[in-house]
Amino acid sequence: MEQLNLLFDIPLSLVSPDEIYQNAEAFLGLLKEDRRFERKSPRTSTRSLGEYFSMWANTLPDGGLVAVGIEDSGAITGCKDLSQTELNEREQAGKVYCPDARYASSLVAVTNSRGEKDYVLLIRVHYRPDKVVYDSQGNAWIRIGDQKHQLSKEECRE
What we know:
Layout: H1 17-22, H2 24-27, E1 37-40, H3 46-57, E2 64-68, H4 84-91, H5 93-97, E3 102-111, E4 117-126, E5 141-144, E6 147-150
């Protein structure tokens, strides 16, 4: 049976991306990748992050979240070992690699897998109902379950 979350007294799978973003410290350790949430290593390339900005911007009904500093396995590696330049590049990835995406980001305090104080870069990408959002390579993506799916020209709603 799915765990009820203590903040909203509803199953975790029913918590919205906005609620997760607003209460990230409580949720980050509990979430698995799903229709709202993607984990990325801090070493993920900024260009590949552009695909995730496109994906969430095109995914009904609410878009979703990218947590940079959490491995696919769920291990929290954090971002404190990134240089300031590397962190800045990840925070600017949406602007550079998917400029039509609408998003916000924050640094969320965590304890990493080594038991050290650290932080995760959490990016909240909002759904764009007014247009298909393409990454800088001219591709459009959506989320289906826990997978990123590239849209064909026929699947684009424009």
